[in-house]
Amino acid sequence: MSAIQTALGLVFQPTVLVTIFLSALFGLVVGAIPGLTATMAIALLVPVTFFMDPVPAVGAMVTCSAMAIFAGDIPGTLLRIPGTPASAAYTDEAYMMTRNGEGEIALGANLLFSVIGGLFGTVVLILSAPVLAEIALRFSSFEYFWLALLGLTCAVFIGTGSPVKGLVSLFIGLFVSTIGLNNPAGVPRFTFGNVELTGGVNFIAAMIGLFAVSEVFRFVISPRIQAGPQAVMGNLFRGWGRMMVQYWPQQLRGNVLGTIIGTLPGAGADIAAWVSYAVSKKMSRTPEKFGKGHVEGIIESTSSNNSALAGAWVPALVFGIPGDSITAVVIGVLYLKNMNPGPTIFLNNPQYIYAVFIIFILANLVMLPLGWAAIKGARTILRIPREILMPCILMFCIVGAFAINNSAFGVAVMLVFGVLGFMMEENDIPVAPCILGIVLGPTLEENFVTSMIKSDGSYLAFFERPIAGGLGVATLLVWLSPLLIMALRSRRVAFPGKG
Amino acid sequence: MRINDAITGAVLLAFAIGMFAYARTLPAIPGQEYGAAVFPMLIAMGLAGCGILMIASGCRHWQGAVAWNDWARTHHAWVRLAVVLALILAYILAAPILGFVPMSLVILLVFLLMMGVRWWIAAAVAVAATILIQQTFVGLLRVPLPLGLLGP
């Protein structure tokens, strides 16, 4: 009980509450502007949280990401341009509703079910994390090796269109993580005598480059003409009661599926929304209405993407394995704050865990009034001229990358990764596996080398413990899945009657 | 600007070979088989595998080494891209000497004017953003941004 009281004391402080409020506003604005993603909001926020205490830092990131995922629905509904990739699944549907004059119902549903989805995911997080932590206490390097590998595997095979390009991105990230002295043997690797490189490549600078600077580059090559959106005039709360009653199965299914997908290491809110939209259409009694401005699929997938956000924190807090690129960054920050994620934090510093839970609940509750205000102010937010915004973002990136170590080296890292991220996106190589590789690389290597030394070089030892064996088989199955799918397809082609 | 997968694959393959060769030179810990070299060598092998797969798929869909999409045909886009790169480079090289405030003003002004913002709006935004960033990072977060010309 006392830990919960301590946690309440940690959260309910003026500075923490103001931080949460400001980052909520920041998340809403960044999420609502097309082209600026939730991950970019986090990338811009991290240099600021870097200098805060652990609790406000985590509070800022949790709130900002939740708001940005919701706010991505606003331009999707009004302009047919998703604000963040997590909204892309149902953008067409929501825009059709706007064209049918039902924009306020679509946005109202987005707001209501985002809040409920977020709270559902939070409840699952609160209930499951401590239980899983008990189990995780018995984990050895074998289990952690497989968990890290499973996370990276899912990121490559589930999160991307082409597994080969996903793997390229992952290997680049893993290579970057090997630079410097931070390895089990303490040998300088790939430093070529450069003193700055011995400290390794800072993942915050890399992330600012990959997710924010690359976006600035993309903007300058093709500044899009901004369309002026319609203001939302109607009553946002219209039909909330009816939708809750009529669509409760869809909502529940979205919440459950979203939380599960979020919990999967390597898959996050984007994928949750796509899967849930597809499931909703398949299970619907009126699938013919989908794509013509029907609220059913929107409810299911908007519930899903917000619950996935909280679900992604389960593996992040319990095992230190990120569920998506946002939690990957959060984990990096937690390490910097000496709040190392993993089962031991539940024993040694439970107040921090409770503080995270409280912040999750607060963030989702504060979404209701702030989200309402953001929808009402959407016209103004969407009219912020991009040609003024982007230079300011670039300057902010530069200062953020500089601030981490107070050296221009951080800016150089940011520049390199900005160009790299730009080139990767131009060639359809996804960026998210790269940042996961940078963050998880050291964990993967450490547990791999430790396990190899323990088992005296026998690979069989990786499958000897029951949980490690299960995780190992699961990982291998995901690896083999493209081959299995190909085999199934060719069978179908060979025997068309049996498909 | 889409580079053909075969070209990207070849670059990755070459990089992986270099990485493997370098990793082999890393010192081993006496008496232990698994030292600093194992992990980079595994990564290099994985990257080489991807490179070979990409070469294979690129050769099957060969349409020239580089496919230029719309933006890459206009020299405006290239100029703007070069200017932004130059601005970041300028910060890296000149900020320690000139300081944050002058560099920030210059970068913001050049970028804003390049995007066609009217000069008085550009000037106002540059000054306001510089003050805001300076106040947040130096005042609130106590980051010692380079003082340069404004320093003692």
Number of helices of chain A: 24
- Computed CA radius of gyration of chain B, to the nearest angstrom: 24 Å
Regions with little confidence, pLDDT below 50 for 5+ residues of chain B? none
> Number of helical segments of chain B?
6
What is the average per-residue confidence, as pLDDT of chain A, rounded to a whole number?
A: 85
Class inferred from helices and paired strands of chain B: mainly alpha
**Biggest sheet of chain A, open or closed, and with what strands and sense?**
none
Number of domains of chain B: 2
Helix content of chain A: over 70%
Number of domains of chain A: 1
Work out the helicity level of chain B.
over 70%
For the biggest β-sheet of chain B, the strand order reads 1-2
What is the strand tally of chain B?
A: 2
Q: Round the mean pLDDT of chain B to the nearest integer and report it.
A: 87
Order of helices and strands of chain A: HHHHHHHHHHHHHHHHHHHHHHHH
Explained architecture:
The complex is a heterodimer of chains A (499) and B (152). By secondary structure, chain A is mostly helical. Chain A has one domain (2-224, 234-490). Chain A has helices at 2-11, 14-32, 38-49, 54-71, 73-79, 91-99, 103-136, 141-157, 163-178, 195-198, 203-221, 240-246, 248-263, 269-283, 295-311, 313-319, 325-336, 343-348, 350-376, 378-383, 386-405, 408-426, 432-454, 466-494. Chain A is globular and about 65 Å long. Chain A starts with a helix and ends in a 5-residue tail after the last helix. The mean pLDDT of chain A is 85. By secondary structure, chain B is an all-alpha fold. Chain B folds into two domains: 2-67; 73-150. In chain B, strands 1-2 form a two-stranded antiparallel sheet. The model of chain B has no long low-confidence stretch (mean pLDDT 87). Chains A and B meet through helix 9, helix 11, helix 21, helix 22 and helix 23 of A and strand 1, helix 1, helix 2, helix 3 and helix 4 of B.
